[in-house]
Amino acid sequence: MGSSSGQSSGSYDFSFKILLIGDSGVGKSSLLVSFISAAVEDLSPTIGVDFKIKLLKVGGKRLKLTIWDTAGQERFRTLTTSYYRGAQGIVLVYDVTRRETFTNLSEIWAKEVDLYSTNQDCVKMLVGNKVDRDSERAVSREEGTALAKELGCMFLECSAKTRENVEQCFEELALKIMEIPSLLEEGKRNILKQKPEYQAQPGGCCSS
Ligand SMILES: Nc1nc2c(ncn2[C@@H]2O[C@H](COP(=O)(O)OP(=O)(O)O)[C@@H](O)[C@H]2O)c(=O)[nH]1
Ligand SMILES: [Mg+2]
Questions:
Q1: Which residues surround ligand 2, an ion (CB under 5 A)?
Q2: Whose CA is nearest to atom 1 of ligand 1?
Q3: Does the beta carbon of 73 lie inside 6 Å of ligand 1?
Q4: Is any ligand 1 atom within 6 A of the Cβ of residue 24?
């Protein structure tokens, strides 16, 4: 049992798995840290990957987002199928100051996603990170918009450093996921799957 931080695991409506994908150094881990900030419940890292949990309220629903980050193995392009399995949302990140991270998204990462993601309805968000370094920009916003359209993704530019658009990224993704019935169903099922481990007390009041 993890230490409880006052938020009982039964206190949310849907539970979604979100992935961060993209080249090494684009800021995936920074985005995650930036988003999680104070309210974080750390879980022990699994082999090769690390994930964090964020509880938040979006569109009147209480959500548990399990956000998976790579542990650097993207450098060797060896993300495993289990990393992709069961994801409802995928954040594809590039660095607006490094053009090759943008081209690698369309040439490598988007193809991997198509190959390995188990749910074809999975919602994707293209994110151009590091917009705080605007003078070094190597990919225009228009190019980002065009690629997003081509890949069928939502699109945002953000900065993990200034936190510009960081919350919007995950919230808009969650909102979109909730518009898709099959994903919503999975989000509900994820909770049922998680329940027995944590909620053993039948009928009783469990907190305090
Ligand atoms: N200026 C700036 N630097 C960033 C931003 N996000 C990440 N970085 C830096 O980019 C480097 C790589 O970030 P990291 O999160 O480790 O990338 P990852 O390999 O994709 O997980 C680190 O030195 C970060 O401090 C950002 O939005 N703006
Ligand atoms: Mg990282």
A1: 28-29
A2: 130
A3: no
A4: yes
Determine the atom of ligand 1 nearest the C-alpha atom of 26: 20
Tens digit of each residue's pLDDT, the chain (208 residues): 333 444 455 688 999 999 999 999 999 989 998 898 754 444 444 445 678 899 999 999 999 999 998 866 676 666 677 788 899 999 999 999 999 999 999 999 999 888 888 888 899 999 999 999 999 999 999 999 999 999 999 999 999 999 999 999 999 999 999 999 999 999 999 988 876 555 545 554 554 4
In a domain, 205, yes or no: no
Does residue 190's CB lie within 6 angstroms of at least one atom of ligand 1? no
In terms of Cβ atoms closer than 10 Å to its own Cβ (0-12, 13-18, 19+), residue 126 is buried
Domain ranges, residue 55 = 11-193
- The residues that bridge with 90 in the sheet, in sequence order, are 19, 124
Amino acid (1-letter code) at residue 77: R
Query: Could you tell me if the CB of 29 is within 6 A of ligand 1?
Result: yes
173 domain-assigned: yes
Residue 1 lies in a domain: no
Give per-residue burial for 58-73: e unless 16+ CB within 10 Å, then b: beeeebbbbbbbbeee
Query: How many structural domains compose the chain?
Result: 1
CATH number at residue 47: 3.40.50.300
What is the DSSP code (8-state) at residue 2? P
